[in-house]
Amino acid sequence: MEIQGEGFKLRSWRTDDVESLQKHADNPNISCFLFDRFPHPYTMEAGFSWIAPMLTQDPIVNFAIDVNDEVVGVISLDLRPDIYHKAPLLGYWLSEALWGRGIMTNAVKLITDYAFNTLDMIRVQAGVLGNNPRSMRVLEKAGFTKEGILKNNLIKNGVILDEHIYGMVKS
């Protein structure tokens, strides 16, 4: 599956993506803004462990961000169970070399449209670490609304942080 963006595409994962995934994911300036389950250093083994379950997704909710046939990031919808089954959580990261070019804002718009129109979701939500204003700006430029701040809600690298909650509802 592919969704075409401007200068990039969101696509399904392939087994040969591991090298470019590891190359771009192995960056402390990326891992410092993500869940602790995102390892640093990011090894080839971590890449293989990530890609293996992505090859059998149904529905496809986790996309490789591809520029010139190279994985330079990830964007995904975390489908939740029970009463949240129509309101996934959005997560993403992009290679530091491509920050500031509008790729992630465009990718967020594309995956949100996919969530609403293909997966029939009613809401997409994202939580952002309080020390990541760039990610907050991406969501705002993509049309998300800041709905609240959860004070002292996270601990990342030993630092207590607020979590900023963003959402978009299907119109």
From TrEMBL:
<dbReference type="Pfam" id="PF13302">
    <property type="entry name" value="Acetyltransf_3"/>
</dbReference>
<dbReference type="InterPro" id="IPR000182">
    <property type="entry name" value="GNAT_dom"/>
</dbReference>
<feature type="domain" description="N-acetyltransferase">
    <location>
        <begin position="16"/>
        <end position="166"/>
    </location>
</feature>
<dbReference type="InterPro" id="IPR016181">
    <property type="entry name" value="Acyl_CoA_acyltransferase"/>
</dbReference>
<dbReference type="GO" id="GO:0016747">
    <property type="term" value="F:acyltransferase activity, transferring groups other than amino-acyl groups"/>
</dbReference>
<protein>
    <submittedName>
        <fullName>RimJ/RimL family protein N-acetyltransferase</fullName>
    </submittedName>
</protein>
<keyword id="KW-0808">Transferase</keyword>
